[in-house]
Amino acid sequence: MLPGDVSDSLELLKSTFEVLKSRFGGVLYVPGNHELWVDGTEFECSLEKFHAVMALCQASGVETNVFTAGKLSIVPLLSWYDFSFGEPCAYLKRAWRDFKACRWPAQLQTPVQVCEFFLQRNTAVLETVNDKIISFSHFLPRIDVMPSRIPAHRRRVYPVLGSAALDAQVKRLNSNIHIYGHSHVNQSVVIDDIHYINNAYAYPKENRIARKRLHCVFDTDKERDCLIEAAAAGGSLNHGAA
Fold first, then answer.
1. Which 3 state secondary structure label does DSSP give 115?
2. What is the pLDDT of residue 217?
3. Residue 125 contacts by C-beta under 8 Å, 6 or more apart in sequence?
4. Whole-angstrom Cα distance, residue 208 to residue 67?
5. Residues 125 and 175: beta-carbon distance below 8 Å
6. 21, 85, 152, 194: which sits with the fewest CB atoms below 10 Å from its CB?
């Protein structure tokens, strides 16, 4: 599962897909905000680039729809942020690159409209039923998955981390596990009987907050949550996030 923010370059995204496809039986993906940056590109708007990214996935054999293996279904969820985690401050409005690097068509002029557009595209997959459901998104479905240790000045980005409406979709799916990206902070926490996981790679310099290695979250042969099992054996659910 690859929850986005690989690159804003389609060439780099393509080469990443090729490497991953050569090493794994399958690759599942949702785009992040970085993939939709259009400054300095040939794309007129971020929606046009979104469709180009999805076309690249199809051409590369990368799955963007529900993947089912026996009693397990993995459900990719598109998303954005809608300020349901807080209103952006003046600093964030000035510094957040999306506000300059993304351009949207007339009908999608606010983050709320962009978020609603992507969430509506998830409607069909929300009917997925199986014994085990793993959903994944780029953006955060709830802000309380962020560790309490995050200092106040770092919390200025919280308004652009995700959407509470996304969590409503996660719950509608009856997900057992939800994997997300975007925050650059390792996390593994159970809230309301859902196991939320971020296995962050982050930027190269962000070594302390990001795991930067592959991580098994579910063993299909044994039909069990690998991280919950590790915690029951005395390990930490946070795996370096605390």
1. helix
2. 84
3. 65, 66, 75, 76, 77, 173
4. 33
5. no
6. 152
Strands (E) across the chain are located at 67-69, 72-76, 132-136, 177-179, 187-191, 194-198, 218-219, 224-225
**Which residues are registered as beta bridge partners of 75?**
135
Q: Name residues whose C-beta falls within 8 Å of residue 13's C-beta, 6 or more positions apart in sequence.
A: 6, 7, 35, 53, 56
Residue type, 15: S
Strand partners, 175: none
Q: How confident is the model at residue 239 (pLDDT cuts 50, 70, 90)?
A: very low
CA distance 203 to 182: 11
Mean pLDDT over 192-220 rounds to 75
Q: Alpha-carbon distance 91 to 216, whole Å?
A: 37
DSSP three-state, residue 224: strand
Residues 6+ apart with CB under 8 A from 202: 184, 185, 209, 210, 212
